[in-house]
Amino acid sequence: MSHDLPTPAPRITPENQEFWAATAQHKLLLMRCDNCGNPIWYPRTFCPDCGTFDTSWSEASGRGTVYAFTIVHRSMIDGYRQAVPYVLAYVELEEGPRIMTNIVGCEPDAVRVGMPVRVVFHDTGEDNALYRFEPAGSQ
Fold it and tell me: What residue spans define the domains of the chain?
């Protein structure tokens, strides 16, 4: 299996503060538009579909499928350079949005488009965690 990925602390902003705080409790939050009902990814203060500022947070299921991926064999980013090869992917959540993430818990060559995955959290040591996904059959 590939090396452990680094867990750098994310950049916290007023728009994403609640999202990152929830990751410390291993919860994946999505914003949802209170006007049109669409899920919103990435966290922001307005709905990109209808323009309203009426949004609220809801907990996502944490389940999805691999939409697209690449296996990274070279990285210039310290920490990631030592972790190659690793998988960078878009996961389509059950709730609809596609989010960029890493696939962990399996060999990079085992990842496939359409593969069911579930969220896992890797602690950053800064009162938050990075969300990543593993094959849904993993324990």
Answer: 17-135
- Distances in whole angstroms, Cα of residue 47 to Cα of each of 21, 23, 32, 55, 99: 21, 22, 8, 7, 17
- Is the pTM higher than 0.90? yes
| 91 within 8 A of 115, measured Cβ to Cβ | no
Q: What is the dihedral of CA 58, 64, 66, 71, to 10 degrees?
A: 60
CB 136 within 8 A of CB 105: no
Straight-line distance from the first to the last Cα atom of the chain, in angstroms, rounded to the nearest whole number = 15
pLDDT in tens, 76-132: 998 899 999 999 999 999 999 999 999 999 999 999 999 999 999 999 999 999 999
For residue 69, the cross-strand partners are 89
Is-cis flag, bond preceding 80, omega within 30? no
110 half-sphere exposure, CB direction, 13 A CA radius: 14
